[in-house]
Specification:
With 359 residues, the chain is α/β, with parallel strands linked by helices. Helix content is 43%, strand content 17%. The longest helix is centred in the N-terminal third of the chain and has 34 residues. It starts with a helix and ends with a helix.
């Protein structure tokens, strides 16, 4: 090939490359412009938060929003992070404050009031914050769960109440979560306070400690790390939810008609946990945040809650999936401690528990 022809071909190729690069750059600018027109909305939450991708995508497309999820540990740990960063919030909204931590979240003064129009569909018993700073989203009962097969194989009758756990027959079988950092852990502590009273619950915990109860930081570690029915752990009794047996059926690799676990839901054996969401003061995307709060109360979101987080929706118009309706339970009569009393005594109770169980 002559030098002249070579240069001609080279210049033609170079021109094509430049043209392609220019087109790509132009397309990139156009794409960036489209992306910039979308609001990025950040939801700070606990590690157990989960919702379907299709549901999230539907909200994003309808509202020209990109949702970002910031998972910050167990519920107690996530709330701690939110409080520490409240003057410069890391997100627009927070999901996962429960009624055990409700007063602490309100006292931190980090959420702005918002009364969603969809609150009219929600039963009054869930609306614990009348100021509208925290909106109820779901609920579930924290209680003892046990591995049915483990007890059948050992020919030991499974426990039927909290008191059973102090029997030497159940020594070394229980794993519980630390109430200082774990939402279900604190809920179970409150269940024992409701059951045995302020003056008697620590005696119950002393007996559990003597019976070799294991304390771990969070629900994931307890259930997926120590519970025999869900891991290679050696503890066949765990503090979990009355809905956990339904999760076992749903996630089973083989089709099963009955759950391998059972929840103890007799009168006074559980504590009802209600989870709330709020909009951070200082959010730069308040309009989008309000739309997402409305969305969380809508049937589309509420119906997606059970098979993602295995708790009940607060909106009675939300239909329950079949496996949930068949195997998820609510307590006959959950333990009761008012959130005003929790606000007054929470740290005292946690400190006393810590002294008895961890020192």
């Amino acid at each position: 090939m002559s030098v002249k022809k070579y240069l001609s071909v080279f210049m033609t190729v170079l021109a094509m490359v430049w043209a392609g690069a220019w087109v790509a750059a132009w397309a990139g600018v156009g794409h960036a412009g489209a992306s910039e027109s979308r609001t990025t909305l950040t939801l700070m939450t606990h590690d157990s938060f989960s919702i379907g991708k299709k549901v999230i995508r539907a909200f994003e497309e309808k509202n020209a929003v990109t949702l970002k999820f910031l998972k910050a540990g167990d519920a107690g740990a996530a709330l701690n992070r939110a409080i520490l960063s409240k003057n410069n919030p890391m997100a627009d909204l927070f999901f996962g404050v429960d009624n055990a931590f409700l007063s602490r979240a309100i006292q931190a003064d980090m959420f702005e009031p918002y009364h969603s129009p969809l609150l009219g569909d929600i039963p009054e018993r869930f609306k614990l914050d009348k100021t509208g700073r925290l909106t109820p989203i779901d609920f579930g009962d924290v209680c003892l769960n046990y591995d049915k097969k483990w007890f059948a194989d050992k020919k030991i009758p499974p426990p039927s109440s909290m008191e059973d756990l102090t029997d030497p027959a159940y020594k070394g079988l229980l794993v519980v979560e630390n109430p200082a950092v774990s939402s279900p852990g604190l809920a179970f502590l409150l269940a024992t306070i409701s059951r045995f009273g302020e003056s008697g619950h620590l005696d119950f915990w002393r007996k559990l400690k003597k019976n070799d109860a294991l304390v771990v930081n969070g629900w994931n570690e307890a259930y997926w790390g120590k519970f025999t029915a869900a891991s290679r752990g050696d503890r066949p009794i765990v503090v979990s939810y009355a809905t956990s047996p339904a999760a076992e059926v749903f996630f089973s690799k083989e089709k099963i008609d009955a759950p391998p676990t059972a929840a103890i839901t007799g009168a006074g054996e559980c504590y009802r946990q209600i989870e709330f969401a709020g909009i951070f003061k200082g959010s730069k995307n308040r309009d989008a945040a309000k739309k997402f709060m409305d969305f969380m109360l809508s049937p589309a979101f509420q119906e997606d809650i059970p098979l993602n987080m295995f708790v009940f929706p607060v909106n009675p118009n939300a239909r329950l999936p079949e496996v949930f309706a068949a195997h998820a339970k609510t307590a006959e009569k959950p333990g009761a401690v008012s959130h005003e009393k929790i606000a007054e005594k929470r740290m005292e109770w946690i400190d006393a528990w810590t002294t008895e169980m961890l020192r």
